[in-house]
Every structure is written in structure tokens, then in C-alpha cells.
User: Fold this.
Amino acid sequence: MKKTIIFCAGAPLAYVDKVKDVQFPILVGVDGGTKILIEAGYTLDFAIGDFDSTIVPQAKEVIVLPTKKDDTDLQYALYTVLSQFHLDDIEEVIVLGALGGGRLDHLLCNIWLAFDVKLEKWFPKLHLVDEKNSASFYLPGTYSLQKEEHKKYLSFILMSPVKHLSLSGVEYPLDKKSYDRPRSLISNEFLENDMTFSFETGLICVMQTID
Assistant:
């Protein structure tokens, strides 16, 4: 049975209600995210962080990081936990609290996880989620995408040059449009409950958002 790993960072909008949608998840509290999960009544499989602003929590496995380090607590948690699982045994990797919290540098760092060579094989399964936004990463191919409940807008963030991008089933379709540099194509909308997109080269972050 494939499992879902949920990482919870410490942003105020961690959206822990998402945990209820997942059956038998592996829960990872990341620094301040440990407190958020515990206060929501969950038992942690892992607690990872420097815990410089909170007490060290209880979990099945606790890893205390130094305060001075090259990687963020979330990066270290992803490297450490994902290394213990085979790619085919994991359905998806959900990260809560990575899209908000007020620090723009943290937000950009988390989006740039898609370029982290240590996570390269994992990022097609990586989903960053909060109460109002979701972000997923795609390599070249053809995909069918479902509209998420209450999410109005659909945006395609081209994180590299992209060749022959096509969008169908949306308000603003494209037919094999190429872009020679990164570009943000935001505020598109589903015409129905699903849409299809494809592209031949590049890397795309797809976001669904609430107005």
C-alpha cells in the first residue's frame, strides 16, 4: 500500500485540516510545525528542527539540528525522511505551511525546491499546500488536471524556458506556444472540472488558488 508523507512547516497558515483527508499518513513536524500538529491532536512520526524558538517535542523519532547550517529545517527534513523510503512506495509528498508565513525568502526557497538535485526524483510527487493555494511541479509530458474545490484560478509558472505548451479546457487556451525564458501565466480558469496541458521541454509549477 502506497503511503503519503506530510511535512508540516511552522507557518501560521499551515492548514493542518488537510491531514484529515489522508488515510494513515506519515507525519513529519518541521521545527514550529511540530507544535502545530501536536496541538491539533496528532502523533508525530518525525520531529525535525533546531527548535530554537520552541521546546523539543515528543515524536517516534526526534532529530535536533544545529541552529547554524547551510540548509533550512524543511530541506533537511525532506532529505532525511525521504531517504528512508523507496520512491514507488510513496503516493505523494505534501508540504503544509510552505507557501505563507510572511517571509518571502522562505516562500521562494520552498518553490525553488524543484531545482534541488537531492530531491530531483521526488519533486513530481511534491505538493505544497495551504488553505488558499496549492503548487505542484511538472516535467515534460501530457497531463490531466482536476479542479480543486473552491479554487478559482489556475496559474502556470514557467520556471525555465518551455517548448510547445498547450492548454485546453481553460478560459485562455494555448496551442504549442514556446517561451525562451521563465514566464508567469497566471489567473487562468477551468471551463469545467478538468483540463489538459502538455509541453515538450522545461519545468512548470502549476498553482491553483482561491481569490
